[in-house]
Amino acid sequence: MDMNAVTFRIARAGLHFFEEPCISGTRGSGTVFFSGCGMRCPFCQNYEISRGGKGVNVSGAELLRLFGVLEEHGAANINLVTPTPWTKQLIPVLKEFKMRSELPVVWNSGGADDVSDLRALEGLVDIWLPDFKYSDDALAKEYGAYPDYSERASAALAEMRRQTPEDVFGADGMMKKGVCVRHLVLPGAERNTDGVMRMIAAADRSLYVSVMAQYFPVPAVKDHPLLSRRVTEAEYRAALDSFFAAGLENGFSQEPGSATEDYVPDFTASTEEIKALLGR
């Protein structure tokens, strides 16, 4: 396939040190942030690219070049952030990359990927890093996700686990293959979080789960008063209690201080960096 005939829109390509410890490590995760998202979560911390469309158009050949640059800079993996809308275009690019490199490929998605699309990716993704946002479909609908989000996310998670039934780590503690599920704790949504933990446990109690405390209000939450505040310490402790009550065995937690804009990339600067890396 002619890689110049495939086009993507990306907003950042660089080393990222704020993923889970087994993803970033000390070398950094080679993240590529794709623009656009099928869900319309008002609280999205990357709203500049998921809703605003900020980014740079690149060809498949240029995307491969960026993967190579990240590897040269010491990336522990190639981490595709919000890749779901670009799945079909990514398949030939990933096939070519797999012939060039042994770096693990991370699929960092909103969690509601179509199972048929995931099956088409089999053998091309080493680490699945999906969100599991909602067990409460009424809340999912209110917050702009698919009205059947919980069913879609459960089916996607089952397929991801089928493809990578074991979590494999290197001697350095870095994940080489496997699944790590993320859940962003939202204000006033304890029952939703409790349901999410139980749904993940129903899929596989040994799954790694990242319970995230990094929520902070962004401009689009003005129409959702409950989202206008940060998560309290009591709410986050309740989320951790739900993790253990569900019988989950492996996971990561965050300090409350992670709820800050400091961890969100500067997408204006990063789009210029992409152009520089490509010699534009």
Descriptive report:
By secondary structure, this protein is α/β, with parallel strands linked by helices. It has 10 helices and 10 strands. The protein has helices at 21-24, 47-50, 60-72, 87-100, 115-120, 137-142, 149-163, 190-203, 233-245, 267-277, and strands spanning 7-16, 29-34, 56-59, 78-81, 105-108, 127-128, 168-169, 175-184, 208-212, 250-253. Strands 1, 2, 3, 4, 5, 6, 7, 8, 9 and 10 form a 10-stranded mixed β-sheet that branches. Helix 4 (87-100) links the parallel strand 4 and strand 5. Helix 3 (60-72) crosses helix 4, helix 7 runs parallel beside helix 8 and helix 8 packs parallel to helix 9 (233-245). The longest helix has 15 residues, at 149-163. The protein is globular and about 50 Å long. The mean pLDDT is 93.
